[in-house]
Amino acid sequence: MHDIIVIGDGPAGLSAAITARMRGKNVVIISKNRTESGLYKAIEIGNYPGFPGISGAELSGKLVMHASGMGVEIIEGRVTSVLPMGKDINVSYGTEIVTGKSLIIATGVVQTSVFPGEAELLGRGVSYCATCDGMLYKGKKVCVVCLSPDAEEEADFL
């Protein structure tokens, strides 16, 4: 039985887990393989406080090391269901189930590839956030392709 189950091992999930451990809580994180995340694939991150110019893989590694060093259990797996059972919460992944008192969902934004080559170029020219990645394209010609209403705002920012 865990005090807190966190789904997602990105900056939000790891920060939540670290903060909970500092408050004496027993915490487990369940997340897919972090090497598949957009953060991990980022060549350079310029807007994360304290780590200017760090790669996504380096930042992800530092966050995981910090959390695991504080006693946060990190399980690699794909969550398949979340079931409230009275005052407890059961989270299943694969054939296993973890039980906790509270749940934090920090899965981030899921991007789906729409264009040929998009997934292969993620972090190497393809980005999803002008605020996060815009500095990488300073002084370069860019193309903004977007299927949502905020495309014009992102283009103006760039």
Global outline: elongated
SSE order: EHEHHEEEEHHH
Q: How would you name the oligomeric state of the polypeptide chains in this document?
A: single chain
Derived from helix and strand composition plus strand pairing, the structural class reads alpha/beta
By DSSP (H or I, 4+ residues per run), the number of helices equals 6
Tell me the span between the first and last alpha carbons: 47 Å
Structure in words:
- It is a single chain.
- The relative contact order is 0.18.
- The mean pLDDT is 88.
- Strand 1, helix 1 and strand 2 form a beta-alpha-beta unit.
- The longest helix is centred in the middle third of the chain and has 14 residues.
- The protein is built from six helices and six strands, in the order βαβααββββααα.
- The chain is an alpha/beta fold.
- It is elongated.
- Helix 1 runs parallel beside helix 3.
- The termini are far apart.
- A six-stranded mixed beta sheet has the order 3-2-1-6-5-4, covered by helices on one side.
